[in-house]
UniProtKB/TrEMBL annotation:
Prenyltransferase alpha-alpha toroid domain: residues covered: 201-305
Keyword Repeat attached: yes
Keywords associated with the record: Metal-binding, Prenyltransferase, Repeat, Transferase, Zinc
Family as reported in the entry's similarity comment: Belongs to the protein prenyltransferase subunit beta family.
SUPFAM superfamilies (UniProt xref): Terpenoid cyclases/Protein prenyltransferases
Organism: Pirellula staleyi (strain ATCC 27377 / DSM 6068 / ICPB 4128)
Pfam families reported in the protein's UniProt record: Prenyltrans (PF00432)
Name this protein carries in UniProt: Geranylgeranyl transferase type II subunit beta
GO molecular function: metal ion binding; protein prenyltransferase activity
Cofactor: Zn(2+)
Keyword hit for rRNA processing: no
Amino acid sequence: MPSYLEALTLRLAHGVAALPEGFRQRQIEFLDRSHRSDGGFGGRMGGSDLYYTGFACRSMSLLGHLYGPPAERVEAFLKTKLGGQESIVDALSLVYSGQLLAMSAGIDLYKSAQPNWRQATAELLESLRREDGGYAKGPEGTASSTYHTFLVLLCLELLEIPPRDPTRIVEFIRSQADPEGGFHEIKASKRAGVNPTAAAIGALQILGALTPDLAEPTIDYLLEMQTDEGGFRANTRIPIADLLSTFTTLLTLQDLGGANAVDTRAVQSFALSLAHDEGGFSGAHWDTGSDVEYSFYGLGCLALLAK
């Protein structure tokens, strides 16, 4: 059975294949221009890093471009990151990028890694476990995070290592639910957000613990987040839509069976309005630049809508 991320990659790849060839080619050209001399990808400032390289790998895989010389360049960059003490986000980016290289290009990133790298990575992640059953953002963190708990589960699934005491993880995720719908990122947060909500639903899906009592209010909450722009906003205090929130909300509503109530033409129009003529996407209407992260979200939105 494929992992959550493997299944999502295949799902998005089918949608991307239905997009116009010229549009797909412009995204490939954008990624090629963004590919740096060290083999990695970066944001709008700074050098190459695992976070942005992970998003670029995801888009390249969806576009059928993660093979041959581009894949070999990515491999060269990722090899420089093996054995490091990474954050949860970077650990997932490294493991998932390695998985995509294997799936798309037949490259075994870890053939030269230490024999116990899988278990060592799992132990590093487990060191972030907190008493409430969730996982903190980093070693210094005292509060469990809905988002980072989801990331740990994604990473463990790719490593093929089951999470310890999954019942306690489910209890933590359920404790993050807001009575009015949606989920909080940390217990101290004042309101729910669409991105921690997507993370919570994803985590419960991985653990096989998603129940109707959580699904129905979550659908209602997410549907309220669509704006006049056509996209979805991050929470009730933010008036404008963005691509990240739009992608995670649309994905979650599809998974919960609530996407039929979405104005999908408006979502598609919003996503396309952020696409640049030369390839790449901005993050929101106020944003004039582009990067590989938001370009993945834009591509992902259109892929979800293509079917």
